[in-house]
Amino acid sequence: MRSSSKYEEQLSTFSKNSRVVLVTGGAGFIGSHTVLVLLEQGYQVVVLDNLSNGSYEALTRVEKLVGKRLSFVKGDVRDQSLVTSIINKYKISDVLHFAGLKAVAESTLNPLQYYSVNIEGSLALLQAMVENSVKRFIFSSSATVYGENAKIPYREDSSRGTPSSPYGKSKAAVEQILEDLAQADDSWQICCLRYFNPIGAHNSGLIGEDPEGVPNNLLPYISHVAAGRYSKLNIFGGDYKTPDGTCRRDYVHVMDLAEGHVAALQNLVAGFDVINLGTGVPVSVREMVAAYEAVCGKEIAFEIAPQRAGDLPEFWSDCAKAKQKLSWEAVRSLKEMVEDTWQWQTKNPLGYHNEE
Ligand SMILES: NC(=O)c1ccc[n+]([C@@H]2O[C@H](COP(=O)([O-])OP(=O)(O)OC[C@H]3O[C@@H](n4cnc5c(N)ncnc54)[C@H](O)[C@@H]3O)[C@@H](O)[C@H]2O)c1
């Protein structure tokens, strides 16, 4: 644990009313951008992360960007006694739970690891919260919980489906656990945010997405091709029943998502709720490649590869509920998403490892 004397000092100078938010997985992609917005908004932040797919450097840069300190604890969210000690030490009032594993294909190869981190991790965290009567909780869920048969655009009032991967099943299971918890104890305030496809980076180019190993998601992969690290992009499936034959997804800027979390925190109410965070606009893989080429001024070589099992042709969000309940909507354009991704890539060709 980082020596926290300066942090303690700073805490004591803050208003007693200011809230202290525990952000699990805060050193990762979405978590680090959300920590930045939380600090900007005057929240105190404690990050718990085991750095399995996150970077301490991301948090150092967040502190520099905002000019404020946060507290960091390196550890596993499944360690209930550690979480209890953090809640007590920092007087945590709210929890944002990002920590988890997220690679769909990997989850089919290693389901136990996914269920352990994503479900046991959530259970340990919730148990520690119960012990300490902390009952404000925001969960990183995913559009994958709608399953294969939901009507497009996905609306929150359609029931959870059966996701095809262990990753998706773990998200649906945690949502169910949270729903049961709120049913059993009406003093809980729980919101599951169902993200669509987060991309982009902070417009400083200092923080962004830095996955370990070969990227699973489209944008980091395209970035690596544009930067010359990979020779070409494999587009999985060119014969879907979509306008140009490639899959369509609802890409949302990570800073919009981050702001969505703060809006959700500010509008948390008793009970259980689920809210989509997306743009409502589908973009195909080919359209994304063209948008990237326009921004980086290079050709992105690609090849059409066979479809991947479990990939849906297209889906996007209905965003009305977020607008109505959180007064939130995504405001950043596709061009900004791509420009910010490219800026992050060019300023940090090796991600955070440049300086580690
Ligand atoms: N990025 C997406 O496309 C997407 C879409 C929908 C939902 N989500 C969910 O949002 C959350 C954040 O996603 P992200 O893209 O920022 O992923 P990420 O991998 O960048 O961040 C997750 C963070 O959790 C940490 N972590 C993993 N296991 C941990 C453990 N056992 N204990 C403590 N920390 C642990 C990692 O080190 C990492 O910093 C995840 O729960 C993910 O499933 C992501």
What labels would you give this structure?
single chain, 356 residues, alpha/beta, Rossmann fold, seven-stranded parallel beta sheet, two-stranded parallel sheet, 12 helices, 16% strand, globular, binds nicotinamide-adenine-dinucleotide
Note down, in words, how this protein is organized.
- There is one protein chain.
- The protein is an alpha/beta fold.
- The longest helix is centred in the middle third of the chain and has 21 residues.
- Helix 8 packs parallel to helix 10.
- A seven-stranded parallel sheet has the order 3-2-1-4-5-6-11, with helices on both faces. Strands 7-10 form a two-stranded parallel sheet.
- The protein has twelve helices and 13 strands.
- Helix 2 links the parallel strand 1 and strand 2.
- The N terminus is likely disordered.
- The protein binds nicotinamide-adenine-dinucleotide (NAD).
- Nicotinamide-adenine-dinucleotide binds next to helix 2, helix 6, strand 5 and strand 7.
Question: Which helices and strands appear, and what pairs or packs with what?
Answer:
Layout: H1 5-13, E1 20-24, H2 29-40, E2 44-49, H3 56-66, E3 71-74, H4 80-90, E4 94-97, H5 104-109, H6 111-131, E5 136-142, H7 166-184, E6 189-195, E7 197-199, H8 218-226, E8 233-236, E9 248-249, E10 251-253, H9 254-266, E11 271-277, E12 283-284, H10 285-296, E13 302-305, H11 320-326, H12 334-347
Helix pairs in contact: 2-3, 2-9, 4-6, 6-7, 8-10, 8-12, 10-12
Bound molecules: nicotinamide-adenine-dinucleotide.
